[in-house]
Amino acid sequence: MAVNEVRSLLERHGHIVQEIDGANDHGEDLHVTFVENGQRTADSLAVQVKGGVSVRTRRGHRVRVGDHGDNWRDGTLPVLCVVHDPERGGLFWANATRQLRRAEALRKTLKSVVVQRDSLLDDDASEAFAWRMRSYLRREREGVGRWADMADVEFAPDDIVKPFMNDCGEPMVFWQKRGEQFAVLLHHDLDWEPVAIEERMLHFGQIPFIGSIILDEAEAHWLMGCFKATEWWRRPLESDRAPEA
Q1: DSSP β-bridge partners for residue 183
Q2: What pLDDT, on a 0 to 100 scale, did the predictor assign at position 242?
Q3: Less Cβ around it within 10 Å: N or C end of the chain?
């Protein structure tokens, strides 16, 4: 019943849903491909579906990760958990991949995916849900979705996001929002805590640094390149400029 409810909702809104045979169920029940204007898109994900009573909590629901953690976190397709609980209003969803990556960043082991009671998935919410997931999947294809998940941030469609890997295999991300005078640095060594940075804070020398963050030479030159390449994106928006006298 739960799988049918999810499939029916998504198919009503034109999306392609393929049910996975029970004999081949290794933690996912459905594969979903989003459709726009009648055309299949490149945006696909997997869904684990659960009935509501068995996973119900006072504040929502919890779906046990079990031995699916590595696949849900690092698999080719992101995985959502959707709970069917008609007594509480219908379908509720959570991004299992994102929660598992965030737990990894915090050096924790996630035993259950938390599904909030306000994350309702119904006909009214379906368009916003599809837009949100397609934006998420676009960042996955760009290779920066994992870092957004680990830092627990959301990249807007027009944000400039530049990843970098230092010689120790540690990832970093330079993140510039439109019209903001500062950028944000996300760094493995900083436990993915977002840090506001400006070009004037970047210093070269025997030990390069930006603010209180010590860098190696390659990281410093990469950051300088990012600042120079995105200078135009920090210019004030037309709507922010004071009117001429």
Answers
A1: 197
A2: 55
A3: C
